[in-house]
């Protein structure tokens, strides 16, 4: 199940979003900026574009293989929370 592109793509997107946050904080610090920069826009796009991919995965695979698909959905959700947590905890 994890070999399906619709299973892997959201996790990769979450990892990229988390990497963007980490690199941004390493370069500029955790201070809030007056204007959203490229990092913020890329993070927002990556997070928002995961939703339709996850929905496609759920619609396609939950009826066919509910137990493995649910496991993948949990991993995708954990990835989204991991990518969003630093933003909310640091107030970025």
Characteristics:
92 residues; mainly alpha; 3 helices; 79% helix
Q: If you average the pLDDT, what whole number results?
A: 91
> Level of helix content?
over 70%
- Structural class per helix/strand content? mainly alpha
Count of DSSP helices? Answer: 3
Largest sheet: none
The total count of strands amounts to 0
- Residues in β-strands, percent: under 5%
Question: In sequence order, what are the helices and strands, one letter per element?
Answer: HHH
Q: Quickly count the domains.
A: 1
- Shape field: elongated
**Radius of gyration, taken over Cα atoms and rounded to an integer in Å:** 15 Å
- Tell me the span between the first and last alpha carbons: 35 Å
Unreliable stretches: none
List the helices and strands and how they pair.
Layout: H1 5-28, H2 38-61, H3 66-90
Helix pairs in contact: 1-2, 1-3, 2-3
Tell me about this structure:
- With 92 residues, the chain is mainly α.
- The chain has one domain.
- Helices cover 79% and strands 0% of the residues.
- Helix 1 runs antiparallel to helix 2, helix 1 packs parallel to helix 3 and helix 2 packs antiparallel against helix 3 (66-90).
- It has 3 helices and no strands.
């Amino acid at each position: 199940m994890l070999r399906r592109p619709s299973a892997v793509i959201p996790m990769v997107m979450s990892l990229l979003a988390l990497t963007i946050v980490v690199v941004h904080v390493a370069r500029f610090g955790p201070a809030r900026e007056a204007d959203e920069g490229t990092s913020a826009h890329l993070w927002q796009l990556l997070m928002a574009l995961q939703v339709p991919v996850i929905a496609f995965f759920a619609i396609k695979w939950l009826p066919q293989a509910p137990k493995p698909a649910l496991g993948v959905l949990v991993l995708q959700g954990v990835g989204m929370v991991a990518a969003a947590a630093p933003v909310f905890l640091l107030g970025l």
